[in-house]
């Protein structure tokens, strides 16, 4: 690659920071924040520098690996791709399409090529046994988007740059850099919020890095958020603070909400949550009475026993106080590639519960079953049992509940293939590993995170390094496999037209599609000089066609659409290339009710699914609060899920994979700082060093996820030396939020004891 400074977007987390990477003599000399990026304004976190370590990592795979009697052997791409397609096809022919399972991990959503090519790949496989990180993550948000706004990816985002009060519940953006809220430089933006007189309130079972910056902080008992939120809804009604603002015209079923909250006065929910009734009332009043305010929840409110209800209630509270779609509240982006509009046009606004999983009868969401039931579907014999598996950029052994059981399941498969550039806890079970190029060797555009950004922005980066001649991008691997699978299905050949279609796709690649999407999107300009002539026709169509007419989708997908008329225009791939630091497309703007995709064009305030789950919440309220120790997770700014621990720079220093425990509990279980503790559930047990701290709530322990690199045969040398233990070896896979099917990753009860005792007992 040319020497000099290259500007691009860091793809590691959701924040989309601009980086300036200096290349000298073909090597990375430095990675710095790009001060000219209009969105991140020079901010980066320590992980950005590790982009270099990823690039230089000797453990990163570059050629396909094949499992043989003599261990792993490298092979060429044609052999590997033919072999994989043939083996998958064999399983499919013998046992049917659903005998193949797939799991798509988190890095897919940071990779537009993999996102686009993933579609034909899944279509070619045709299996219903699909899984992904979604059900260990943001599924409750997507379900609430679908139920309330009519579209699964119409995510509302805190308008942090204009708010005066942010109540942050179950999120730690100081460590995570924001989630479902792409917010580079959270700290800087928070400082700006506070210096304009605004406040941050944090509600969390741990006094997190974010809590330390907050103006107010409240401990909450894990899993009890739905009660707290109900108490706030109750207060709004009781104190006549419900004021929907303009939303009163496009919402329905407010009366059902009033009825639903009647059983949850703050005084009744207080003892379960650990938050005083007066505090609950004050929280509700502040949200209602602060002109620009927002309530925001994330992993801690979604991946827990009441994830569905809590996420619904968070949206609801914003709506009841007039904060949805209002400046400084919870708003919607208008991304340059509008996957919401595109999805709706192709009939993909989402679905839930159309099918149930074979073994546990769990609902599908958007065509995927909950990851918690992956092992069930592999291990349980019968018609429809999964016999072959494909993982794409995922490490579910460390990231999904009950990783040890999942490993047993992977071991008994007839065939497994992983598209991944590391030999790790998951891919070590594969028969073939297909390693793609890495981020700096491919172009980058954030299809997903631009939909959740706190400003409307767009940025495209070309590959920084030219990939080796025998390297393949994710999208190429997936397309090649899809093509082969289709051909095998059709007796070895496809019709001329289909064949031509495949060839064009492979030749042009995802960037050509991106270009079309940009040009025909809200900020595009596909018609150039004839635009003035077309505008009246579009206006006429909008005027005469009913809102839900299929042809309306056409105008909705053109830059000429009424809603988009006053947006800046002219975006295309070329335009983005001319602006290597990225383009600012302006602040979030109100967009409702135009942007709703519900059948009646209204927000459903009380979807049936949530009301049906209230019996469970009420049973929880009536039961005596338990004395169990509850386990929660945590993130650290120098770590990224399971796969950044091979960077010496990031893992050096004291181990961060520790059990946080309150001094009272430590005393109760005779644990001393630095001791090893054994943490156990019905799923399994792990041993982990103890860190005693008043920063976790009594009755709560915390372990970060993504560690546990102590499995045999992994190819991560640095990570192996900093192995830690995997929290998901003790998280049970039979605990899901029944409304959404989301894994319960926070709030499961665990048993903790000093390792010494166990050793002594074993000796006795
Ligand atoms: N207990 C607990 N468990 C959790 C969580 C938690 O908070 N607590 N968080 C959950 C969340 S939010 C998430 S998103 C999941 C993440 O779960 P996963 O997505 O399953 O796991 P990752 O650790 O992100 O692993 C990513 C894998 O992709 C590979 N990879 C990286 N980049 C690329 C690429 O460009 N192409 C390809 N083909 N492969 C690549 C890496 O080598 C690694 O194997 O974990 C979940 N698990
Ligand atoms: N550095 C770093 N950044 C990351 C990642 C990473 O691994 N490392 N992962 C990325 C990914 S994939 C995601 S999805 C995001 C996640 O982004 P966040 O959701 O902001 O990150 P978490 O640290 O999981 O925050 C969850 C918070 O919920 C709290 N919590 C746990 N249980 C409960 C509960 O029952 N109630 C309440 N109220 N709080 C609870 C936890 O203590 C924690 O502070 O981060 C992204 N960014
Ligand atoms: S905050 Fe996220 S996007 Fe920004 S530099 Fe760090 S890892 Fe990259
Ligand atoms: Mo995630």
From TrEMBL:
Where does the 4Fe-4S Mo/W bis-MGD-type domain lie? 3-59
Signal peptide interval: none
Record-linked InterPro entries: Asp_de-COase-like_dom_sf (IPR009010), MoPterin_dinucl-bd_dom (IPR006657), Mopterin_OxRdtase (IPR006656), Mopterin_OxRdtase_4Fe-4S_dom (IPR006963), Prok_Mopterin_Oxidored (IPR050612)
Q: Which residues cross the membrane?
A: none
Q: Which family does it belong to?
A: Belongs to the prokaryotic molybdopterin-containing oxidoreductase family.
- Organism equals Marinobacter nanhaiticus D15-8W
Provide the protein name. Molybdopterin oxidoreductase family protein
GO terms for MF: iron-sulfur cluster binding; metal ion binding; molybdopterin cofactor binding; oxidoreductase activity
- Lineage top rank: taxon: Bacteria
UniProt keyword list:
Iron, Iron-sulfur, Metal-binding
């Amino acid at each position: 690659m040319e020497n000099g400074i290259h500007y691009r977007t860091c793809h590691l987390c959701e924040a989309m920071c601009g980086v300036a990477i200096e290349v000298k003599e073909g090597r990375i000399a430095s990675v710095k924040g790009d001060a000219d990026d209009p969105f991140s304004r020079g901010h980066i976190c320590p992980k950005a520098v590790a982009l270099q370590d990823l690039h230089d990592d000797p453990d990163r795979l570059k050629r396909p690996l094949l499992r043989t009697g003599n261990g792993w052997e490298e092979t060429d791409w044609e052999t590997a791709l033919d072999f994989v397609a043939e083996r998958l096809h064999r399983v499919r022919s013998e046992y049917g399409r659903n005998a193949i399972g797939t799991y798509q991990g988190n890095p897919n959503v940071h990779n537009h090529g993999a996102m686009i090519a993933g579609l034909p790949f899944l279509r070619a496989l045709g299996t219903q046994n699909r899984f992904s990180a979604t059900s260990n993550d943001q599924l409750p948000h997507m379900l609430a988007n679908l139920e309330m706004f009519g579209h699964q990816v119409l995510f509302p985002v805190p308008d942090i740059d204009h708010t005066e009060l942010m109540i942050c519940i179950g999120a730690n953006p100081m460590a995570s850099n924001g989630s479902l809220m792409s917010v580079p430089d959270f700290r800087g933006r928070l400082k700006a919020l506070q210096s304009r007189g605004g406040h941050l309130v944090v509600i969390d079972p741990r006094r997190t890095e974010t809590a330390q910056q907050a103006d107010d902080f409240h401990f909450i008992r894990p899993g009890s958020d739905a009660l707290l939120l109900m108490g706030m809804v109750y207060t709004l009604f009781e104190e006549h603070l419900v004021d929907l603002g303009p939303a009163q015209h496009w919402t329905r079923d407010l009366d059902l909400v009033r009825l639903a909250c009647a059983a949850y006065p703050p005084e009744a929910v207080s003892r379960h949550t650990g938050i005083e009734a007066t505090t609950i009332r004050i929280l509700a009043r502040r949200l209602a009475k602060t002109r620009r305010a927002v309530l925001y929840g994330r992993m801690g409110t979604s991946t827990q026993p009441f994830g569905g209800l809590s996420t619904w209630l968070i949206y609801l509270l914003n709506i009841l106080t007039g904060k949805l779609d209002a400046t400084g509240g919870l708003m919607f982006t208008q991304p340059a590639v509008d996957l919401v509009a595109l999805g709706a046009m192709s009939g993909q606004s989402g679905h839930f519960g159309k099918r149930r999983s074979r073994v546990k009868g769990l609902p599908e969401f958007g065509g995927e079953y909950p990851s918690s039931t992956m092992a069930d579907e592999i291990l349980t014999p019968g018609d429809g049992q999964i016999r072959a598996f494909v993982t794409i950029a995922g490490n579910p052994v460390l990231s999904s509940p009950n990783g040890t059981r999942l490993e047993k399941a992977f071991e008994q498969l007839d065939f497994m293939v992983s598209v991944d550039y590391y030999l790790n806890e998951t891919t070590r079970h594969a028969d073939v590993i297909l390693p793609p190029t890495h981020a700096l060797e491919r172009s980058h555009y954030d299809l997903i995170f631009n939909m959740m950004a706190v400003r409307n922005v767009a940025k495209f980066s070309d590959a920084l390094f030219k990939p080796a001649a025998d390297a393949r991008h994710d999208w190429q691997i997936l397309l090649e496999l899809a093509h082969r699978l289709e051909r095998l299905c059709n007796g070895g050949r496809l019709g001329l037209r289909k064949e031509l279609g495949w060839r064009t796709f492979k030749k042009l690649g995802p960037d050509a599609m991106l270009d079309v999407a940009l040009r025909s999107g809200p900020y595009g300009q596909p018609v150039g000089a004839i635009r003035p002539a077309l505008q009246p026709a579009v206006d006429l169509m909008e005027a005469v066609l009913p809102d839900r007419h299929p042809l309306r989708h056409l105008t909705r997908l053109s830059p000429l659409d009424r809603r988009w008329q006053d947006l800046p225009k002219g975006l295309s791939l070329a335009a983005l290339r001319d602006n290597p630091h990225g383009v600012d497309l302006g602040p979030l703007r109100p967009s409702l009710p135009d942007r709703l995709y519900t059948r009646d064009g209204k927000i459903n305030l009380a979807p049936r699914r949530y009301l049906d789950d209230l019996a469970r919440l009420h049973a929880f309220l009536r039961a005596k609060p338990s004395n169990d120790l509850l386990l929660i997770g945590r993130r650290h700014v120098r770590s990224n899920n399971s796969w950044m621990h091979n960077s010496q720079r990031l893992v050096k220093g004291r181990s961060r994979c520790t059990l946080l425990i309150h001094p009272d509990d430590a005393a109760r279980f005779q644990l001393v700082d630095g001791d090893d503790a054994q943490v156990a559930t019905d799923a399994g047990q792990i041993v982990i060093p103890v860190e005693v701290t008043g920063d976790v709530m009594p009755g709560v322990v915390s372990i970060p996820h993504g560690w546990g690199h102590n499995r045999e045969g992994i190819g991560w040398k640095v990570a192996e030396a900093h192995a830690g233990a995997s929290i998901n070896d003790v998280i049970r896979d039979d605990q899901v939020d029944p409304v959404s099917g989301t894994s319960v990753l926070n709030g499961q009860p665990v048993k903790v004891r000093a390792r010494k005792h166990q050793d002594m007992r074993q000796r006795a």
